């Protein structure tokens, strides 16, 4: 059991890292981009905006905590 | 060579160089204190294990339709790239300690000296395990970048990934291995002069840029494969615009966080003083 937990912990740390909200934000932003792309509205702008907002929010939380 | 091909080789080179500098520090510390035989066997076994990971996953990845592959790879690169970028911004603004290879080397030397010797079947297993872990875990990140970055790269209009991208990314990684390994062998000391933090910043920016580009291409193309490549204004040229945007945001955040950090530091003695 210890090894299974360790295995998943390793991959979680490796891919998701310190702030899970970034990973969740990326998945949500990509899903919204895919939805927007189906409506014939330009969808390219959504992901860069989401990245800028997500990164700012994540770092701001760090600065606020200290 | 196209813009994305140049970025692909450069990103693979920089990411690999950074990870190899870290692996080299561990290997040198263990080798210098406990002898080279078991240490180098550990390095060799880790290299073979990494090659097996790339050989097993590489051909499997190119079988996935490019739009879906780009969607998944875009998401992974973006999550991975943002992790690197976030840490790099925190380091540049004072919220996280700068990576110091000299300090890591000293710590590893001390730990290797203090550890007891367990020799079985002519092998010092402490040296083997430490060098294997160092090379394999640092290398896994490189393998991940080479595979994801490389597999999402295709020629214009292609609907299936090819091995060309993985080969290009591997060229970047091997170049880093030759340079870092060669210099490490020559100076026989941790490469503390390598601007590791700047390189990590650059890799974070590049992975985030490509993650955005391929993520959008994938999200658009996964539903309608014919439209792959038509969504970004300026098509491949958009990569440069995204790169400029990410650099701008990153430097802006560094400046903002530096100010915030300075305010926090300035306020700390005042609070202490008030309490005294």
Any overview of this molecule?
The complex is a heterodimer of chains A (66) and B (276). Chain A is mostly helical and 66 residues long. Chain A has one domain. Chain A has helices spanning 2-15, 20-37, 46-65. The model of chain A has no long low-confidence stretch (mean pLDDT 87). In chain A, α2 (20-37) packs antiparallel against α3. The N and C termini of chain A lie far apart (36 Å). With 276 residues, chain B is an all-alpha fold. Chain B has one domain. Chain B is 78% helix and 1% strand. Chain B is built from 8 helices and 2 strands. A two-stranded antiparallel sheet of chain B has the order 1-2. The radius of gyration of chain B is 21 Å and the shape is flat. Mean pLDDT of chain B is 80; it is low at 271-276. Classes of the chains: A mainly alpha (66), B mainly alpha (276). At the A-B interface, α2 and α3 of A face α3, α5, α7 and α8 of B.
Give the overall shape of chain B, derived from the CA principal axes. Answer: flat
Please report the total strand number of chain A as a whole number.
0
Note the total helix count of chain B. 8
Q: Outline of chain A, from the CA principal axes?
A: flat
Number of domains of chain A: 1
Please state the structural category of chain A: mainly alpha
Q: Total number of helical segments of chain A? A: 3
Task: Count every beta strand of chain B, where a strand is a DSSP E run of 2 or more residues.
Answer: 2
Helix content of chain B: over 70%
- Assembly state (oligomeric): heterodimer
Summarize this structure as a short list of keywords or feature phrases.
heterodimer, A: 66 residues, mainly alpha, 3 helices, 79% helix, B: 276 residues, two-stranded antiparallel ribbon, 8 helices, flat, disordered C terminus
List the helices and strands and how they pair.
The complex is a heterodimer of chains A (66) and B (276).
Chain A: H1 2-15, H2 20-37, H3 46-65
Helix pairs in contact in A: 2-3
Chain B: H1 3-34, H2 37-61, H3 66-92, H4 101-114, E1 119-120, E2 123-124, H5 125-152, H6 164-187, H7 196-221, H8 238-275
Antiparallel strand pairs in B: 1-2
